[in-house]
Structure formats: C-alpha cells, structure tokens
Design brief:
This protein is mainly β and 105 residues long. It has no helices and 6 strands. Strands 1-2-3-6-5-4 form a 6-stranded antiparallel β-barrel. A hairpin with a 2-residue loop joins strand 2 and strand 3. The protein is globular.
Length: 105
Amino acid sequence: MRAGNLDRLIEIQRRGTGLDLYGTPVETWTTYATMRAQLLKNTTDDREGERGHTTDATLTFRMYYFASLSLNDRLLYEGQQFEITGISEIGRRVAVDLTCQRLAQ
C-alpha cells in the first residue's frame, strides 16, 4: 500500500453514553481516530423496502491496520455517517479493508 493513495480523510467514531440536561443517559458518538484512507469502491443500490423506495450507498476503504477497530464503531466521511459492516485484514497487520453502509439520517 502506497501512502500517496491514501487521499481521503475519515473519522472513526466510538459509541458512548452521556447525560442530557435532565440527567437521563443518552447515546453519544465521539471521534476516536482520524485517519487517511483510500476509497476502493463506491456503489449504490436502489430498492423497494418497507419504508418505500430507498437508495443504499456502500463504500469500501483501505487504510493502515488499526488494532482496536470493531463493528460497533462507525465511520464519518464527508459529513455522512456510515455503519461498518465488514473488516478484512490484509497481510499480517499491514492494512484493513472496511466495508461501510450509509446510515439513514
């Protein structure tokens, strides 16, 4: 993997809990890491679902190996939130491919 190919900036966010103004626990997302990545594949899929006609965007990123990355994290790219649906290791802790699906907002 060449560093010059890592031309995208992504943020990895981790779930946490916080308190709102009334002391009620709420789910929060905090940026855990900001990394450079290469966009390998960008696909969209139009389909009819239970909510009507939807368009799903699926992206695949390649980045340097990140040990504590899990499927419970999410990715922020160009202001949009993506759920991490797949992590595949390349080599022996050299790089990872992340498959992400855009979250409905």
